[in-house]
C-alpha cells in the first residue's frame, strides 16, 4: 500500500490524483490533504478519504473545517497556512507527497517533505524553477527521487529508462503553442483573460493555462527539465506540436528518437509517478492512431512569444535569475487575470524585473525566498506604474 499526501488536492492535478486513487484502492491510500480557499470541496474530500492530517489556507477556514468534521465524529489534525502545508508534507504515515500546488508557495513544503524522506511526485514545476539546484541537491543528499508528473517530463523520463546519459544528444519538449499559436502580434495585445483561459487541449488551473498561452509554461518546463535530468540548456529544445499527442522526445547520439505518445490526459502521468516502477492497467480512454488527423511540428515563434526566450536567458544566467523570472511571472499573470495589465505586458514585466535584478548566487532556502519576495515586490511596483 502506497500512502500519499497531496498538496493542492482541490486543484486540477489534485483532483485527478484522487481519481487515480479511486481507481486503485488496493494500492493507494490518502493519508494527508492540503488545499487553499475551496473549503466546501475540501470538506467533501476529507469526508471521503478520511486523511489523518488536513490543512487549509486560513485559520478561519481551518476552524470551520474542524467544526464541520467534528459534526461527523471525525477528528483529524487540522492545520492552516504555510505551517499547515509543511505539516501535511511531513505526515509520518506518508511515503509519497504529490506536489500539486500552483506557484512557488510549494517550495518550503516540498523541501520539508524531502527532509522528512518522502518521495516527491512533482507537478509543482515552479518549485524546481525557483530553486532547482537547491532542491535537487537536497533530494540527492536524502536519496529521494523526484518523480515527474508534468506530462513532458514524465514522457522524457520514460524515454530515458534503461539508457546511458552519455548516449543522449538532446531532449525535445513539445508545446501545444496555446490558444494564440496563429494570432498576429498586434492582436495578441488585445486578448482577454477569457480568451487566454481556453487551452486547445488541456483543462488545467488558471495560472498554468495563462502560462501555456504566453509559452512561459514551456520556458518553466525547460528549467524544470534542466534540473530533473541534469542537462545543459544547449541540450534542451522546444518544438510546437499543436495536437499534444507526442508528449516529448529524446534524441540519442545514434540518430534514434524515442517519443512518448498518449491521450492528453494528466491521469496517465500522475498514475505512472505513483505506480513506478510498475505500470498498472487502467480503463482510461485510449489513443486511436488511425483516428489521428496528423501530427505536425513547428518552430516556436520567439518574437510573438518572448517568454520562452526569457526563460532560456534566466536559466542560462543561473543563480537567482530563474527564481526572479518565476516570481515576476506569478505576479504578472495574477495582474492579467485581474484585468490590470494586457497579455503582452506579462513578458514585458518579467523582462523588466529581470533587468532590475542584481545577479547573485543563492546558498540556502531563506536566500531564495528573499529573492522571490523582492521580485514579487518589484513586479507589483512596475505594474502599479503601468
Ligand atoms: N493542471 C495540469 O494539467 C498541470 C499542472 N501542472 C502543474 O501542477 C501545479 C498545479 O497546477 P493546477 O492543478 O493546474 O493548479 P490549480 O490552480 O488547479 O490548483 C492549485 C491547488 O493549490 C492550492 N493552493 C494554491 N495556493 C495555495 C495556498 N497558498 N495554500 C494552500 N493551497 C494552495 C489550491 O487550493 P484551492 O483551490 O483550495 O484554493 C489548489 O488545490 C502547477 O505547478 C502546474 O504548473 C503541470 C502539468 C499539468
Ligand atoms: C499537461 C501539461 O503538462 C501542461 O504543462 C501542458 O503541457 C500545457 O500545454 P502547453 O504545451 O500548451 O504548455
Ligand atoms: Mn507540461
From TrEMBL:
Pathway: Isoprenoid biosynthesis; isopentenyl diphosphate biosynthesis via DXP pathway; isopentenyl diphosphate from 1-deoxy-D-xylulose 5-phosphate: step 1/6. GO terms for biological process: isopentenyl diphosphate biosynthetic process, methylerythritol 4-phosphate pathway involved in terpenoid biosynthetic process. Belongs to the DXR family. This is 1-deoxy-D-xylulose 5-phosphate reductoisomerase. GO terms for molecular function: 1-deoxy-D-xylulose-5-phosphate reductoisomerase activity; isomerase activity; manganese ion binding; NADPH binding. Its EC number is 1.1.1.267. Transmembrane segments: none annotated. Mn(2+) binds at residues 150, 152, 221. NADPH binds at residues 10-13, 36-38, 124, 126, 205.
